[in-house]
Design a protein that fits this description.
The complex is a heterodimer of chains A (about 100) and B (about 325).
Chain A lengths: L3 E11 L3 H11 L5 E5 L16 E8 L1 H15 L5 E10 L7
Antiparallel strand pairs in A: 1-3, 1-4, 2-3
Chain B lengths: L1 H8 L2 H14 L8 H23 L4 H29 L4 H12 L3 H13 L8 H34 L10 H9 L2 H21 L3 H6 L1 H19 L3 H29 L4 H12 L6 H8 L5 H31 L3
Helix pairs in contact in B: 1-15, 2-11, 3-9, 3-11, 4-5, 4-7, 4-12, 5-7, 5-15, 6-13, 6-15, 7-8, 7-9, 7-13, 11-15, 12-13, 12-15, 13-15
Chain lengths: ~100, ~325
């Protein structure tokens, strides 16, 4: 099967950021995303909205350039003040044109 | 006064709340599923709005005039007094002071409901239009405190930027914050419920009344169990927030509560109504305010505002505050 190499960007963040992060993805050119509610802990541990939902995990498959752009936005606007982590991993997909 | 306290302590609401705290203290695995919590809060807020709307259809504009004005006045004053006390006396940072002030300027719907149930149990029912006042008090407090915080931190950031190269993230536009608070679920359910209740009137309300009123107290009891669990899990943070915030969380409600009772009495509310307005003024929001503050003033430490609102002021009002405001309301009414 012919596959295309792309980048999977995973963001784990406090749930209160959900709408803002999805807007950032769209704005940077991501074509879609998967959202999962999740729990966990890290250096910031406490979540402001634990009554409403702990954390979200947001995954999107994008080109390396879009992933880079998004990481840049996260680093400048989110990392200093919010509980957010993000990482990228290489993935191979079929129908690569769907994602870029 | 003691008898009133006893009645309040032995109400299902207080006891369920205490049960929640106790089950956290003994590290029980008990937890209320998030979906149930969300469902209960939707039910309670909508029921509150609907009943308030139906009652509102019996009120005239002249009944509402002064109560509405004093409620707006309190909504404007309480965030400012809270901010000044926290900043000047408590020496909190601008963001922390504004973040906490946003919670104390706004109103806790559950405290309001508990106060309403309390005066009803004692046969001093509050005016039917009280839920309308809650919706008026919810938003200005958050807006004003966030505005103070945003302006002050922007000034400080500008001063910092002038001294060094450091750049800070761009501030969020006020319209986004306003949209968030005004379209939050508590606002939509309560304001929407009020309008629906007002439009449908007493007769159409009859068929749905058993669901929205008959089950109300039971649902509220369950909700307070969850509040107890939430407050209980924050008790550990009491040590880290310090004595000042502990004092602030109990003394500020009494000051704001007294102000609310006096203003309510002056505006012509009954003893029950003045008590409820006192409880509203004294309460600190923990549903609408936390996300708004987190988004707009991310520098503010959530441990401070959540612990103060949820683990200090909420239990204080439920157990002691409401009977105190009732006592004040009775005293100034000369009873």
């Amino acid at each position: 099967m012919h596959t295309t190499p792309l980048t999977l960007l995973t963001i784990v963040a406090e749930a209160v950021l959900k709408d803002r992060l999805i807007a950032e993805l769209t704005q940077a050119g991501a074509k879609g995303h998967t959202l999962i509610e999740c729990e966990g802990c890290g250096s910031r541990h406490r979540r402001v909205s634990e009554l409403l939902g702990a954390n979200i995990k947001l995954e999107t498959i994008v080109s390396a350039a879009v992933a880079d752009k998004l990481l840049e936005v996260l680093a400048v606007e989110y990392f200093p003040q919010f509980a957010v982590i993000a990482y990228i991993s290489p993935v191979s997909v079929i129908r690569g044109e769907k994602y870029v | 006064m003691l008898e009133v306290l006893r009645i309040n302590l032995c109400s299902p609401l207080s006891l369920a709340f205490v049960l929640g705290i106790v089950s956290r203290l003994v590290r029980s695995e008990l937890s209320i599923p998030r979906e149930l919590y969300a469902s209960l809060s939707i039910y309670l807020l909508l029921a509150l709005g609907l009943k308030g709307g139906v009652e509102l259809s019996h009120s005239t504009l002249s009944d509402l005039y002064w109560p509405v004005l004093v409620t707006l006045g309190i909504g404007i004053i309480t965030p400012i007094t809270s901010y000044l006390v926290l900043r000047r006396i408590g020496k909190f940072s601008t963001a922390d002071a504004a973040g906490i002030a946003a919670h104390y300027g706004s109103v806790s719907a559950v405290t309001f409901i508990a106060a309403q149930q309390f005066v009803q149990t004692l046969n001093y029912p509050a005016e039917g239009f009280m839920p309308t006042l809650v919706t008026l008090m919810e938003s200005p407090g958050i807006q004003i405190a966030l505005a103070i915080g945003a302006i002050q931190t922007a000034k400080q950031a500008a001063a910092r930027a002038a001294n060094s190269e450091g750049s800070s993230p761009p501030a969020r536009p006020t319209s986004a914050v306003l949209h968030e608070v005004l379209t939050g679920r508590s606002m939509i359910l309560m304001v929407g419920g009020l309008i629906v209740g007002l439009l449908m009137g007493e007769k159409s309300y009859e068929p749905v009344k058993p669901f929205f009123e008959g089950m109300f107290k039971g649902a509220l009891t369950l909700f307070l169990l969850e509040m107890g669990l939430a407050a209980g899990s924050r008790l550990g943070d009491l040590k880290s927030v310090g004595l000042f915030l502990l004092g602030f969380g109990t003394i500020m409600p009494v000051i704001h509560g007294t102000l609310g009772v006096l203003a309510g009495h002056w505006a012509g509310l009954s003893i029950g109504g003045a008590t409820v307005l006192g409880a509203m003024s004294a309460s600190a929001s923990y549903i609408a305010a936390p996300p708004a503050v987190r988004m707009t003033l991310p520098e503010a430490n959530p441990t401070y505002y959540l612990t103060a609102a949820l683990a200090i002021t909420f239990p204080f009002n439920i157990v002691l505050g409401i009977p105190i405001y009732f006592h004040i309301a009775k005293t100034i009414a000369g009873q």
